[in-house]
Amino acid sequence: MNYRITLLPGDGIGPEIMTVAVDVLKVIGNQFNLNFEFQEAPIGGVAIDATGEPLPKETLEKCRNSDAVLLAAIGGYKWDNLPRHQRPETGLLGLRAGLGLFANLRPAKILPQLIDASSLKREIVEGVDIMVVRELTGGVYFGTPKGVFETETGEKRGVNTMAYTESEIDRIAKVGFETAQKRGGKLCSVDKANVLEVSQFWRDRITQMSLEYPDVELSHLYVDNAAMQLVRWPKQFDTIVTGNLFGDILSDAAAMLTGSIGMLPSASLGASGPGVFEPVHGSAPDIAGQDKANPLAQVLSVAMMLRYALEQPAAADKIEQAVLQVLDLGYRTGDIMSEGMKQVGCKEMAEVLLKVLS
Ligand code: IPM
Ligand code: MG
Question: What residue ranges do the domains of the chain occupy?
Fold first, then answer.
C-alpha cells in the first residue's frame, strides 16, 4: 500500500519528536509492506517566521492532498505577543476548520508501568481507561460574534459566542455513542446546562440521540462536577463527549491522571478526508533542542494514524506493544522518571524503541 503523509513538525520540541515518528514509520513500513511518501510543511511559529502566516495556503493544500497528517506541536514564547490572526494557535484552529475535523479523540489510559508517575494514589488511577471525545470545530472557539467592540457608552467589551447547531451536536454525539459502543458501553455527556442555554440544547439533543443507541448507558454531568469526579474517582468514566472548550480543559485533566501528558496521542477526524494525528502535549519551548523531550506521545499518534486513517491495525498494535516494552525495560524520559528507572533523552529513547521494533 502507498500512503502520502504530510508532516507538520511545527515548533519547540516538534522537530525532535517528529524525527522519531518518521523513523518508526520507516521501520514499520518495511515490516508491513507499506510505502510512505512524506511531504513536510510549515505551521505555527516556523510558518510565521517564513511567510508571516501561521497556516500558509500551501500547507493546508498539502494536508488536503494526503492520506493523513502527522502534526507535532506549535507555539512558543517568541510568538506569544503577536496579534491573534498571526498567533501559532490560530494556525492550528485554521487547520482543524480547514479540514473539517470536528471530532477529536483523546484517550487517557494509565499504563501499569507508569502508575507511580501519576500525582494521584495508585488505587485511584490503576485501571483508568477514558476516551474523551471533544467537539473541535464549533462552540465558543468558533462562534460569532467575536472580538472586542465598543459599547454605546464608549467602553470596550470583549465577546465570544458559545453556539452549537443541531447538526453539529448530532454528528459529535454519533461519534460519542459509536465510540462508547466499541469500548465499555458507557457515555457521559458533559455540559453546563444549569446555566447555559446552548448547553441545555446540547443535553436535549444528546438525550434524543440516545434513543438510537439503547445499548449505550448515557449519563450527563455539569462540567464543574465532571472536573471534580475526574480527580475523585476517574474509573467511573468510560467515554466522555463534550464541547470544544470543556473538552480542552477536561482532556488536560484526564491526561494528567496517567502521569504525564507526554504519553498521550490524539486523533482529529472529519466526515471525510485526511485526519490529523498529534500528541496532546504542546511544544515545550523550555526544553526544546535539549534532547529532553518524550517522543512517545508522538509515536503513539503514529499508531492512532495507522489505526484510524490507514486501517492498519496490526501495525498500530506493534507500535503500541513496542512502547510498552521500552517502558518495561525501564527506560524513562524526565517527565515520566521514577525511582530505579533509567533516565534517557529523546534520542536514546528513540534508539531503544527502534531496536525493540526491529
Ligand atoms: C489543544 C490546545 C489547543 C486548543 C490550542 C493550542 C489552540 O490547547 O489542542 O488542546 O485549545 O484546542
Ligand atoms: Mg488544550
Answer: 1-103+260-358, 119-257
**Domain topology for 1-103+260-358:** Isopropylmalate Dehydrogenase (3.40.718)
Q: Is 331 a catalytic residue?
A: no
Q: How far is CA 309 from CA 3, 66, 124, in A?
A: 10, 11, 33
Give the pLDDT confidence of 20-75 residue by residue, as tens digits.
999 999 999 999 999 999 999 999 999 999 999 999 999 999 999 999 999 999 99
- List, chain by chain if needed, residues with CB within 6 Å of any ligand 1 atom: 89, 92-93, 248
**pLDDT tens, residue by residue, 139-168:** 999 999 999 999 999 999 999 999 999 999
Is-catalytic flag, 141? Answer: yes
Does the active-site annotation cover 121?
no
Q: Which of 213, 248, 318, 331 is catalytic?
A: 248
CA-nearest residue for atom 7, ligand 1, is 89
Is residue 224 flagged as an active site residue? yes
Distance 252 CA to ligand 2 centre (A): 6
Q: Return the ligand number nearest the Cα of 252.
A: 2
The half-sphere exposure of 30 on its side-chain side, counting CA atoms within 13 A, is: 8
CA dist., res. 155 & res. 73, Å (int):
37
Quick one: how many helices (H) and strands (E) in the chain? 12, 14
122 burial via Cβ count (<10 Å: 0-12, 13-18, 19+): exposed
- Here the cell at position 321 is 506493544
* Whole-structure pTM value: 0.94
CATH 3.40.630.30 at 119-257, yes or no: no
